[in-house]
Amino acid sequence: MKYSAIQNYISGQFISASTTKTMDVISPVDGTFLSTVPMSSYADLETAVQSAKAAFPKWSKTPIKERVQVFFKYKALLEKHLVELAELCSEENGKTYGESVAEIEKCIELTEFATSLPQLVTGEVLEVSRGVECRTEHVPLGVVASIVPFNFPSMVPNWTLPNAIALGNCMIIKPSEKVPLSCGRIAELLKEAGLPDGVFNIVHGDVEIVEAICDHPGIEAVSFVGSTKVAKIVYQRATHNYKRCLALGGAKNHLMVMPDAIPGMTAQNVAASMSGCAGQRCMAASAMIGVGAIDHIVDKICDEARKMIPGKNLGAVINKASKDRIEQFINEAEADGAKILVDGRHTVVEGKEAGTYVGPTVIDYVTPGMSVATEEIFGPVISIIRTNTVDEALVIENANPYGNAASVFTQNGGVARYVIDRASAGMIGVNVGVPVPREPFSFGGWNESKFGVGDITGKSSIEFWTKLKKSTTKWNPEAGVNWMS
Ligand code: NAD
């Protein structure tokens, strides 16, 4: 085992979980046995909640300009340890080193946004009448939880923790049991940055601990990022227990390619979107709808896809089950009559035979009913569906139950606007394959890609992590008794 057994992080200390049940953490890069992660119980969560509760009165009363000083230091530590954090991210998740560097850089950007919160949560004052004013202020919620997926071991935790904590909350995070190492380093860096003990805690585990988070009466709000199946479970269970909940789910993102699209740029964007992080991004292009005569662009997409070399500039998928599942989708598409133009099945990387790799895969002549057209594949696979008109393309895009991202590739501004107005997704791209909004704009999809109100990052997150206090004051008793006086 490369690293010592992973422990929970509570009250500023790494401590053993109360159970002896563990899971192995295996690197998808080459099958290295990295560590074991504890499957914590309700009792472990209880300890974390008590720790967070104890820290809350002092932390929430610390002025926000003081609270964000921790995040200025944390940002500097992320920069200082970028290489080490990126290496750990690649090791546990399987993405390439370059993709991990980009992930840590995004953590730095997210933290920068958190340091700007004092300018954004100033509250409002309205002069109602002579000497009478109404004032609003954002008040932290208390103990909050963040449940995160495997595909961004550092970035998704940093979607929630800097904002939630800078806004005065105390957080318990539940990392993915598949990639539990990065969160431990985040905890160490937050402590080094001066975050008081108990403000940030980690409880490892899987289903049992997620259910405990949804049920625990001491937790005020739950954010979740993961698959739609689990997002629905968490949203229902947490809100059933009267908690605030924002649950981001899976996706099936459609890129609509018009015949006038610039071929080289379009092909590069489509290939990068479908294969970045081995296709394990909730913003990945999964289906491409080619409108009209686009054969010349499909040829270039295949050329670009062939440049993705597993183990070099294309990372591994998370585990063997995932590799098998992706290859099964490709098998089904082939059996149903689709044409496999670039085939990534049965990929083995020399020297990393125990790694779990799928090569880039381009499937053409997919029909809307095939599983590769409807399911989230979460691998470096693009399914090309052909239509004659943009309206037919929009019918297909609108019919998919998800709604994270949709993009259009065209040189025609009118067509682009037409698609922006009609695509049923929260994040739209024009000639952009991965249309992630940058802070202060917020990240969040529509439909079955998100349950709950608001978005998870940017300005929108302020509403999720705080509650509004409204006070009305009068300091001129001589003005009369009418509230308008
Ligand atoms: P997942 O839903 O399997 O797991 C997410 C979290 O839920 C993990 O911490 C896991 O331990 C826990 N969990 C798993 N099964 C559970 C159950 N039955 N009950 C309670 N908790 C459970 O997701 P994943 O495989 O880790 O991540 C990939 C998924 O996340 C993809 O669907 C991807 O699209 C989605 N994702 C979405 C976004 C977004 O912004 N919408 C971002 C990243 C990932």
Would you give an account of this structure?
- The chain is of the alpha/beta class and 485 residues long.
- The chain has two domains: 8-249 and 449-470, Aldehyde Dehydrogenase, Chain A, domain 1 (3-Layer(aba) Sandwich); 253-430, Aldehyde Dehydrogenase, Chain A, domain 2 (3-Layer(aba) Sandwich).
- The protein has 16 helices and 20 strands.
- The chain has helices at residues 42-61, 64-80, 82-93, 97-115, 117-120, 155-166, 181-192, 207-215, 228-240, 263-275, 295-306, 320-335, 371-374, 390-399, 413-422, 460-465, and strands at 8-10, 13-15, 22-26, 33-38, 124-129, 132-140, 143-147, 170-174, 200-202, 221-225, 244-248, 253-257, 285-291, 339-342, 361-366, 381-387, 405-409, 427-430, 450-451, 466-474.
- Strand 1 (8-10) and strand 2 (13-15) form a beta hairpin.
- The model has no long low-confidence stretch (mean pLDDT 97).
- Bound molecules: nicotinamide-adenine-dinucleotide.
